[in-house]
Amino acid sequence: MALSDWEARPPDDSYYAxxxxxxxxxxxxxxxxxxxxxxxxxxxxxxxxxxFLSGPFEPGFAMLLTPxxxxxxxxxxxxxxxxxxxxxxxxxxxxxxxxxxxKAGSVSDLRKYDHLINYFYxxxxxxxxxxxxxxxxxxxxxxxxxxLEERRxxxxxxxxxxxxxxxxTALYGGSLFSHADFEDPIG
Length: 187
What we know:
Helix content is 18%, strand content 18%. It contains 4 helices and 7 strands, in the order ββαβααββββα. The protein has helices spanning 68-71, 93-98, 107-113, 158-173, and strands at 28-32, 60-64, 84-92, 119-122, 133-136, 141-144, 152-154. The longest helix is centred in the last third of the chain and has 16 residues, at 158-173. 30% of the residues are buried.
């Protein structure tokens, strides 16, 4: 997808908001166990022009990818149907630059469009010591819901939650739609 195909991402000041007491897709968590069972003879994933991080990662920040409607128990307020949660590790942008995963020349466009299909841009949250980061949406991990209790940092505001759906559709569906094609009501 060409850069000209991407719509601008929401501004930093409309990314985060406390919207619900329950867990929702796009919520950010801290101190999440981001480890992977990793075979000792695993091959490097840096062949070709692209480089991808694949873990194992230290505990850290992560963004919930499980759709809200998939987690909640239907017909029962404030209840979950199952405990399985899929999260994307959120890695500091500077670390990704230092490791050569993201090219320095793409950072300006990344901050404007969030156009790197495998990642989701997350602005800094200074009061939570959350640095400007990218969620590795191509590299989701699965954890039990109990790991998330008392670890939520914030939730995505509606414009950023819509942008997350826009990005997930681009990655997993291979097509770009418009932000106007999505909504994220609280219901």
